[in-house]
Amino acid sequence: MAVPSTDIFKLGFIGAGNMAESIARGVSKSGVLPASSIRTAHPRPQRQQLFQSFGVSIVQDNAQVVDDSDIVILSVKPQVVKQVLLDLKPFFTEEKLLVSIAAGIKLRDLQEWSGQHRVIRVMPNTPSAVGEAASVMCMGEMATKKDEERVTSLFRAIGKVWTADEKYFDAVTGLSGSGPAYIYLAIEALADGGVAAGLPRDLALGLASQTVLGAATMVNKTGKHPGQLKDAVTSPAGTTIAGINELERGAFRGTLMSAVIAATKRCQELSQS
User: Fold this and answer.
1) 18 labeled binding residue
2) Which of 86, 91, 178, 242 is the least buried, fewest Cβ under 10 Å from its Cβ?
3) How is the chain split into domains, by residue range?
4) CA separation for the pair 271, 265 (Å, rounded)
5) Topology of 11-170 in CATH?
6) 177-272 belongs to which CATH class?
């Protein structure tokens, strides 16, 4: 059972979509904050009821979210970030911390549009919904050590957290932001291969997804290089090397590398538009 945090602060979400929901659920479930310390606003009754179902307070509008919060997480679509922050600029004060999870929006723009100098940028990914997010954060110049500790605790509630310079964020988006989709394709392809080899569909999909989960867990928990783990299961003239040979013939590794690079370039284009 999670031990409740002794550092209680008020957390608000601007934008009450799926990522905000995942973070709020993880934070309250882990004991980092009680749900009563979290608030958001949303025009649709269905979203309001969903957040209220696990104890989050629903307030009248985004201005009240900012006014009532110590830390404000901006979780709206990137294309509306500028207008949202300009509208909320009068409600930010020096005592408040702005945290943005909007892809492609740089710290300098967040600071300019909000008038807020204490800013942290975070890039989580969709496995936050099951508590297995990969999140990367970078600090604005005026963000304090206490700010960093608090935001780290929030995102550790939904997975693992790394800190990196902002210059790496486009590549972070290309790898961990878009990466789950690449793995979903791989799972689907493995399952299709199992069906082609004669397995029932349900069994093939279950084996494929558990195999990917198990392999990822081996990398995380053993600390061994993936190549070392691959070699350990690859016997001379055996079944695995026969399969790997086909993957190499199809440029499997090169294609995945190209996918990350292409997504990174697209993120760079979007951040400049």
Assistant:
1) yes
2) 242
3) 11-170, 177-272
4) 10
5) Rossmann fold (3.40.50)
6) mainly alpha
